[in-house]
Amino acid sequence: MEEQISFSSDGESVFGVLHIPESTPAPGLIMCHGFTGHKAEAHRLFVTAARDFADNGLAVLRFDFRGSGDSSGDFSQMTVSREIADAGAALDFLAARPEANPNRLGILGLSLGGCVAACLAGRDERAQALVLWAAAARTGRIHDRLLSEFGASRMLDMNGWPLGRAFLDELPTIQPLEEVKSYLGPSLIVHGAADESVPVAEGSDYRVALGGRCRLHIVERADHVFSGLPWQSEAISVSRDFLVEALGAPR
Known about the structure:
alpha/beta; globular; single chain; two-stranded antiparallel sheet; 37% helix
């Protein structure tokens, strides 16, 4: 079953879809989309993954960060910290649902959403499993690339997205590789070998930061969002098997 849901983050409405498995209460998972993405993601990657995970016993919440997709707010106000707050509110919402086991919760993040997921996992002890898909690790690299484009302006037109300077100015303070070290649970990193947006080396950076309970899986020839049916299938199946084991989902 799939339910359209909404919850509040700092007084603004966040919209999402809750995928409910056949047997409940079940282990839960929130899914954090990427920069300028949404709860369905490219080629409906998140839809396909969430349905697969729910078919395998997980209660899955995919949602739009504020300023993205159907959620309230303006993208010009977006910062990584705001998205971490939204993800925390999503975890609160899922933990309170009767369909989810609040003691068996996981976080999955894609691209910049992976950075968000890593930071939240390091801060929130409820996280019992962490999956990072093509996760951005080096925020300084993003800052340096955008700095010249911003110049002295307060707003940057990113292909029709109004990116505010607050996003740029905050980036040097966001340290996901340091934050994620506080997360001590099992983790999985999935990265495309031909990722053109986030170098595969950043997946290795997370692997080092997470230590012995982390597994790094490289999808050969895959791009940033696994935009080929075999690549998508591999990323989802590897993640599903990890999550079912890590969270103890019934199969």
